[in-house]
User: Fold these one by one.
Assistant:
Number 1:
Amino acid sequence: MKFNRGFTLVELLVVISVIAILLGIIIPRFKGMQEEANRSKAKSELKTLQVAVESWYMHQSPQAYPPTSATPCVSSLNSASPLMVASPLYDPFAAPGTEYNYAVSSPSGAYYAIWSVGPTGHTGITGISDNGVLSGTVASTDIFVTNGIQQ
């Protein structure tokens, strides 16, 4: 007796079902991993910008932080001497080519804040007051650096 060695329709449907179930489990995990990678990237780049802004401050006479008119502030840091940031750093959560948000307290200019729009695509942070407190609504998911008061 000769047996046919091909797959039956039921066997093919079972294999396709198992693959679909596995993909349904794996794909959301990749999305979470990508968001976590973007969060880490934003935190790292904000620390880099913080160091660059502090360096800018130390090299100015009189000492001052880059003005808000330099928003995005990296454009000032790219042309500074000594060079502080070689190329613009873009917010991984914002539209492509969008730099991080930057604000300096007014009128004293004693405090600054740099922030990302975060995974939600928007943030409640709107700036920083002259007493070093972030303006707007600061959520626990916001990604920012400041020399002001950490809320």
Number 2:
Amino acid sequence: MAIAVVVDTNQQELQQTINQLKGSDAFTEIIPFEDSLEAVKYIELHGCDVVFTEVEMDGVSGFDFIRRFRSRRPAICFVFVTNKGNYALSAFEYDAADFIIKPIDAKSIRRVMKKMQNNGIRIL
């Protein structure tokens, strides 16, 4: 029953993340965005349960997502999916649910799903 938004400006890496999430059967919808500003608009209008996002992007960074939505939509889990390991400490200081070094894998998805369930989000 969870809805995931995936944001990555690299189309190939975006597709890899989507494919892994689809393979988990945990999400009723997976909404991809290469444009971080479009993702912000979508979340503002529709919400979601989890955001899988790259850290560095033009427009809105992964940290900007958390700053923008943490107070307005506190139940959203934010997961960084990146090649940039140097942001891990900052991600947890921003209260990210998880930090995954690309490529995302089934074990990482299971860990995120457990955190989502602990946060009261119903998983299929």
Number 3:
Amino acid sequence: MQIKKSAEDYLETMLMLKEEHGYIRSVDIAAHLGVTKPSVSYATKNLRENGYITMASDGMITLTDKGMEIAERIYTRHKMLTEFFVSIGVDEEIAREDACRIEHDIHQETFDALCRHAGVK
């Protein structure tokens, strides 16, 4: 099943928040992504319906195995691409922005070759 870039961004953000805070809340997702709470509500509803997350009665969000797999893939790409761009002299903020754009579209074969070239993996 193909997942949209925006859904990947939400899942990646959820993983980052889980690592940073130990929990995932909608309000933190909204703040991190710079979107409204209703936008997060709509996105989490879709992610929940498609089996990527679960939500407890207290509003805490948990990534399912399916959601975690996608979040880890995107987050790994983001970190590696950012580090690579910085290592070749790109400003860190620009490197992060570019990594965020590329992480969704880069083919796995290309990403693997880039990792080998950079001596990662």
Number 4:
Amino acid sequence: MSDTKSRPFGVTLVFLLILIVGVLGLIAGILVLFNRGDNQALGWTYGITTIVISAIYLLVAKGIANGSRVSRLIVGIITLISLVGGIWVALVASGSRLTGVVQAALALLILFMLYNARASRFFHS
């Protein structure tokens, strides 16, 4: 946790993005639970999984804001997975190249914002 250094803008931006995704995921998961459609089991599983992942996102967001190295590592791992997925979509999936490129570009931007020199000082102080 950083007591003497202010949080870099990039870290704040990543915190806000994770927070937004977490809140929207909670809302989506709850909505899915109430409107599962024809496949009740799949809807229930998807809704609960979305809520759990979103809750983890919200906990990780708090850690990012507070300078937690563990939260930074979790976001880094998830973002690397997203980067690989984006590259795969861009190279393999037909009709989704732009989606894959955008996903990969956002993943690289997040990694840069969390692992540049200023962010590293924040997470190691």
